[in-house]
Amino acid sequence: MGDNPGQVIKESTPPEVHLTLETKSQSCNASSKNGMHFHWLRCEDLLKWLKKGCTVEFIGQIIIVSLSLILIRLICEALGCNSKELSSLSNLSWLWIFSIIGGYLAKLIHLPPLLGMLAAGLLIANVSDESFSIPEKMSAVWTSAGLSIILLRSGLEIDLKCLQRSSFLTMRLTCIPGVVEAFVSGLCAMIFFGMPFWLGLSLGFILAAVSPAVVVTGMLSLQQLGYGVAKGIPSLVIAAASFDDVLAIGGFSICIGLALPGTYSTMESALHGPLSLIYGVLVGTVAGVILSFTKLWDKSWKRTTVIMLASLSIMFGMKALSYSGSGAMGAMTLGLISSYSWVNGVPTTFALEANATFVHSVEKQVSIIWDIIFEPILFGFIGSALDFSLIPPGSLVKSVCIICIGTTIRLCSAYLATSKSGFSTKERIFVALAWLPKATVQAALCSVPLMTLKQTMSSDDVNYLQYLEWTEQILSTAILSICITAPIGVIAIKSLGKKWLEKDGTMGNLEDDTTVGV
To answer: Which residues pair with 22 in a beta bridge?
Structure first.
């Protein structure tokens, strides 16, 4: 600022945000008498910054949401919905809008939008009065729908050819860190919370999954800039991140079937988890084969509509049969089989020629629907489920300890998994840090144990309250893992990728650069 108090400060602020401070020579009478000067924030500069960030996409989302809510409200009133139902709809509307705004604000400061959506839900749950409430059934429906769509997208993004061409290093990076973190976190849950083995391991597999929404986006950005492409580092992390979700969801499906007591016998409980996994793969495969008949689904909008309806039908159909884990695995398998069939043009009798753009166009359209509808509502619901007034402070401390211990062990195991890979020490550390962020899978699965408990266990059961406490601890721990690891992962990928990875001067290509240095 120098010796001139009226000097305008511009150099010390980022170029995007010119928050210019200048001394006001004429102040109010009270300040003039005291010889004081006030520094004012120039409103025109603040408005210029907000207008720059206020994109057409954000404005369009708000308009679409507002019109949709008005239409839904009119339909409900025409159907004669009672005041309680209208109140629930109104609360859902506010949650939807605030989540979109929260995601937009997080994006402005270069954080994942899902963190802003979580924060919006947290604020609503912990600041608003008791009149703000959404029925559990409505919450469960939207959570399940969001889970099916997010896992459908994960399945569409898995590249089997990429996995096949990658070396054994991909499988090491997929399995070793995830399994080690799952068992370590599960053991910590048993120690800190006193959970049974299978329930603790269910939490471990929830925490073990990395977030494709964070990891894939960051690694694709580095790949396009040419960082680490020669050694195939972005491709390695992308391929392993996609397959990591399959491992985590499969492990969770098996464990949760053994964890919660209910209407099943001991033998049925032991078989429920593996059967959920098998049924999910079978149902998803059958639906994926039907989607491969592209002579029937010859338009992009047809493929998008059918695959979304199939994903939602699998999720709610298997849930009605008390196989919630099957719905999750089925949605992912559906996306995987559909993607493979479209790219390879099989079966030849019923399919059009192989066309990779089928996958890209469907994924793009599904992502738009996800961004506008399912993502803000899902993460808003997840955030609103964490009411700090109902959680003992000691429980939060234990949750943070479990997360820190699990992620530390994961970092070490990921570093060891990349041994004999031809990577430098810095590159191996970067891969381990890029393998850190959690978000989408945790948000999708964290409420499943609680919902499953309420479906399978009577509230009159002598152990009901204890299991209720444990499942709520799973929920809060998973949400905290998102809040802690997602920002760290984003910062690590963005800042360290350009410093620790070699720039090859060429644009990366996910198909061509999948061979990992051995």
So the answer is: 40
Collapsed DSSP state (helix, strand, coil) of residue 298: coil
At 22, phi and psi to the nearest 5? -145, 150
pTM over 0.85: no
CB 375 within 8 A of CB 117: yes
Quick check: 500 pLDDT over 50?
A: yes
Query: What sign has the CA pseudo-torsion 70, 75, 78, 79?
Result: negative
Torsion of CA 327, 330, 331, 337, to 10 degrees: -170
Query: DSSP for 260-299?
Result: S-SSS-HHHHHHHHHHHHHHHHHHHHHHHHHHT-TTTS-S
Q: How far apart are the first and last CA of the chain?
A: 54
Q: Which two tokens stand for residue 83?
A: 């005041």
Identify the CA nearest to 108 among candidates 17, 44, 212: 17
Query: Which whole-number Å values give the CA distances from 103 to 142, 168, 379, 494, in the listed order?
Result: 18, 38, 10, 19
* pLDDT band per the 50, 70, 90 thresholds, residue 193: very high
Show the 3-state SS of 58-73: HHHHHHHHHHHHHHHH
Q: pLDDT category, 51, cuts 50, 70, 90? A: low
Closest C-alpha among 270, 240, 209 to residue 439: 209
Judged against a pLDDT cut of 80, whether residue 204 lies above it is answered with yes
The overall longest dimension of the chain from CA atoms, in Å, is 90
CB distance 167 to 233 below 8 Å: no
Cβ partners under 8 Å of residue 384, min gap 6: 95, 121, 122, 124, 125, 134
- What is the DSSP code (8-state) at residue 40? E
Query: CA-CA distances (angstroms) from residue 8 to 37, 113, 434?
Result: 15, 33, 40
In sequence order, the β-bridge partners of residue 39 are 23
Mean pLDDT estimate for the chain:
80
